[in-house]
Amino acid sequence: MMEYKGYIGKVEFDDEADIFHGEVINTRDVITFQGGGVAELKRAFKDSVDDYLAFCAERGEEPDKPFSGQFVTRLPPELHRKVNLAATMSGKSLNAWVSEQLQSAVARSGIVRVKKAARKAKGTGKIVVKRAAIRRRQPTEKHA
């Protein structure tokens, strides 16, 4: 994962096309980027975010900001009761307790920090930058 101006990019490698490609994952808008090597990919990511912000400015639109910090989730009533009880028993508000539990789960998942590899990309291929592909996503529970 990569981060720039609060936007987080998730990267994959296409071994058939021999190229890295990615997408900004913490916004409703679709922002993509690609590159033939690590340096190219990093530059393309930053360029795509900058292009997206410029595109929004040109249109007079507010860019979709990375998440607000609020989300609605639906639980079965019995689980809701148990979660509320656990929060009360720990002396915390429901919001504080859930936030703490989610933080702990994220830390266990290993996605909070990605170790930087000191690997050099093979070859010095031409920079391939796919300018930001931008479109509005429909709201989903994932991003609502």
Domain count, please report it: 1
Order of helices and strands: EEEEHHH
Gross CATH architecture: 2-Layer Sandwich
The helix fraction, in percent, is: 25-40%
Q: Count of helical segments?
A: 3
Fraction in beta strands: 5-15%
Summarize model confidence as the mean pLDDT. Answer: 79
**Radius of gyration in whole Å, from Cα?**
19 Å
Explain what you see.
By secondary structure, the protein is of the alpha+beta class. It has one domain (2-109): Double Stranded RNA Binding Domain. It is 35% helix and 15% strand. The chain is built from 3 helices and 4 strands, in the order ββββααα. The chain has helices at 38-59, 77-89, 94-109, and strands spanning 2-4, 7-14, 19-24, 32-35. It has a 4-stranded antiparallel sheet with strand order 1-2-3-4, with helices on one face. The protein is elongated and about 50 Å long. The relative contact order is 0.21. Residues 113-134 have low confidence and may be disordered.
